[in-house]
Amino acid sequence: MTTWNKVGKVSDFQIGSAKAIDLNGEPICLVRNKQGFYAVSDECSHAAVSLSEGTVTDEGIECFLHGSEFNLQTGEPKTPPATSAIEVFAVQVEGDGDDASVSVGI
Ligand code: FES
Questions:
Q1: Strands, E assignment, the chain
Q2: Per-residue pLDDT tens digits for 53-104
Q3: 8, 43, 62, 96: which one has the fewest Cβ atoms less than 10 Å from its Cβ?
Q4: pTM for this one?
Q5: Cα distances (angstroms) measured from residue 8 to each of 13, 64, 91, 103
Q6: CATH T-level assignment (fold) for domain 4-105
Q7: Ligand 1 pocket, 66 CB below 6 A?
Q8: Which residue of 40, 42, 45, 46 sits with most ligand 1 atoms within 8 Å of its CB, as the best mutation to test the pocket?
Q9: Whose CA is nearest to atom 4 of ligand 1?
Q10: Which tens digit of pLDDT belongs to each residue from 12-33?
Q11: Using a 6 Å cutoff on CB, does residue 46 contact ligand 1?
């Protein structure tokens, strides 16, 4: 069963940015890009560094350490050296505009 956790308002997250969020001990990387919001594990599947310190690309997030880019919808690595997917979590935006609340389901 999914538990929704409010993580902030839309205006708290800039487009093109990633933020580390701790949800009851679960490290989450919350990304906002031009398409919307995405939540994935904040741990690269290659060497367990924080993905939220990486670079948000048009369709994913690129690990800062060795450059693997992960698909934000599937968690699959698009480029090496990572070979395993990272976990993906659902994101819900409720309300309108900058004051809408953003929640992550775990
Ligand atoms: S630690 Fe992320 S690609 Fe190596």
A1: 4-9, 17-23, 26-33, 36-41, 55-56, 60-62, 69-71, 88-94, 101-105
A2: 999 998 899 999 999 999 999 999 999 999 999 999 999 999 999 999 999 9
A3: 96
A4: 0.95
A5: 8, 25, 12, 7
A6: Rieske Iron-sulfur Protein (2.102.10)
A7: yes
A8: 46
A9: 66
A10: 999 999 999 999 999 999 999 9
A11: yes
